[in-house]
Specification:
Pfam families: Y_phosphatase3 (PF13350). The chain has 14 helices and five strands. By secondary structure, it is an alpha/beta fold.
Amino acid sequence: MHDLEPLDPSYVQETLSRPPFVSISGVINARDLGGYPSITHPGKSTKPGFVYRSAEVAAITDEGKEQIRRLGITKIFDLRSDTEIQKYNAPLPEIEGVELLHIPVFRTEDYSPEMMAKRYQLYASGKTEAFMELYSQILDHGGPAFGSILRFIRDHPDEACIFHCTAGKDRTGVMAAILLKLAGVDNANIAHDYSLTRVGREPARAKIMKRLRKEPLFASNNEAALVMFTCREETMLAFLELLDTKYGGVEEYIKNYTHLSESDINIIRNNTFGSSSRPS
């Protein structure tokens, strides 16, 4: 399949050098969720320099820590499980002036060998319906974690935050979609944001493949491992349909799974709009 092949390095470098990607040394797939126009609130766009998404920050360098501070980020939300942190020896770092909060989507018991084997089989299939089963699991388990991020946005309209999982693709992608959908960003732009992870992960391709080959399913099936790199727009479009049909839409999901009120939702939505510029 063509989207499993390595991307052209010059294309990757050029894409990563411009928005919405931001540079944080030691962290891949970091980008700004600002600048997307709202179709439900004409004339408004999501606020640049306010909410960021990325892959894990465990390998952040001193330069990266300074870049985090320069971006105005005061809070980092880690969606990874305890199992992942231990398995990959990737603990949260310490960053002066920045609070790092571990809010796992999945509990340790969700990472039993049986559960992980099933989850990897779903990933390896590459089928949209398999990803919908995975993303439904994320929605079902992620309410408390996603609620923590939403409450920060509600209570800290003048502070920036970043949230991440291991690759910055699935759990992070679901959270990003929730925020953008709440702001009224159209499905095409949300799907495009999701697809950018294909480029954002490319610099860590060798590291990711090395990790995957430690898993029995992927050790003997290279193509299945490569499927983990896919970030197709149609996958996110299917997810947004799932969010509407199974969960009643983004607002109903937030009310039912994070226990935030209509008033909270309105404050969060209003806080995501603005004209602040990206820090230089």
